[in-house]
Amino acid sequence: MTQTSKRTAKIMQGNDACVEAALLVGCRFFAGYPITPASEIAEGMARRLPLVGGVFVQMEDEIASVIAIVGASWGGWKAMTATSGPGFCLMQEGIGMAAITETPCVIVNVQRGGPASGQSTAPSQGDVFQARYGSNGDYAIIALAPSTSQEMFDLTVKAFNLSEKYRVPVIILSDEIVAHTREKVFIPAVEELEIINRKKPTVPPEGFLTFKPDTDGIPPMPKFNTGYKLCVTTQLHQENGFRANPQVGAALIQRLTGKVENNADTICEVDEFYTEDAEMVVIAYGSVARSAIRAVRDARSEGKKVGMLKLKTLWPFPANKIRSIAARSKKIIVPEMNTGRMVLEVERISGGLCSVESLPKLGGRCHTPGEIYAAIKEDIDNA
């Protein structure tokens, strides 16, 4: 007899789904500063964390917020913050700090129009490169892009798991539409979830080095005040945490980037629709993917050989999957709520295997299914 699932269904917006998932996976520390359209995450965590033995702190700004979650993580907590574009700008130095100190933490960026204050109540996808390259130097992070409230729940769980497994900051690139769309979300019981926790040392304190990796390239991580001597510095460092010479520093950067990039095929998650016979493929992510799948289905109903690839992981970039799509397609269309960002990565990876068309949209409005369908139809009619 199949055991009945204990999952429940609730109608909730994406921001609330993020809170629900974070609490379920074990987040017990949140530091943040209110900002539209992410404020509901802070409000939800402020209400709920004290009820489960957690801590919520409203910080004086976003700089303090990201530094606080780094400290909380080293104290043994699963920690998270949430913001939007202007606050995300302020967090970049702290994200670099988390990367070089290999600190597990989750940063939610509910994107809105920019630059600067931009459009505080309108969606955008203008922060995708900032998520990957916003801090200084060479490093690697993971960035996930939900397109529905359900995916906001699922990818929040995944963000914490990836952060704990690879000891990296993980960014959830939501947007205003996903944040405020109310729809059905299925919430599993905690025992039905896969929950990953950071590795703990297997050697006694006297034999432990703060940043000595295991064979998988990832060091175990004790928390402060448990008997281990920890030297945590933002300098390029040796395995003991003290400042490194150029050769050791170079090897550190290779390891920090390699533990993410070398596992890209394991980390990356995409959804494919009708790609088996597709001569044209729409590649979309975030809320734009909602319109894109409708447009593709409308085209398929008319016999057009069109497929779709929805990116749930933006960084590391799912290069092998896109290269495979490009090799068997004639054309790729990339609709985005920006001037054309991820299309540049698609073009780079496609390498001339097929033509690539950018379909940007600005002004704080998402593409309609009709706009994407019109681009599909025009390209097919002109072929």
Automatic annotation (TrEMBL):
Annotated Pyruvate flavodoxin/ferredoxin oxidoreductase pyrimidine binding domain residues:
20-247
- In short, the EC number is 1.2.-.-
UniProt-listed CDD domains = TPP_PYR_PFOR_IOR-alpha_like (cd07034)
Enzyme class, one word? oxidoreductase
Task: State the superkingdom.
Answer: Bacteria
Task: Provide the alphabetized UniProt keywords.
Answer: Oxidoreductase
Pfam families with a match to the protein in the record: PFOR_II (PF17147), POR_N (PF01855)
Q: Tell me the ranges covered by the Pyruvate:ferredoxin oxidoreductase core domain, including all copies.
A: 278-372
Q: Name one GO molecular function term.
A: oxidoreductase activity
InterPro entries (alphabetical)? 2-oxoacid_oxidoreductase, PFOR_II, Pyrv_Fd/Flavodoxin_OxRdtase_N, THDP-binding, Transketo_C/PFOR_II
Name the PANTHER family on file: SUBUNIT OF PYRUVATE:FLAVODOXIN OXIDOREDUCTASE, SUBUNIT OF PYRUVATE:FLAVODOXIN OXIDOREDUCTASE-RELATED
Protein known as: 2-oxoglutarate oxidoreductase subunit KorA
Q: Which organism does this sequence originate in?
A: Neomoorella stamsii
Gene name tied to this protein: korA_1
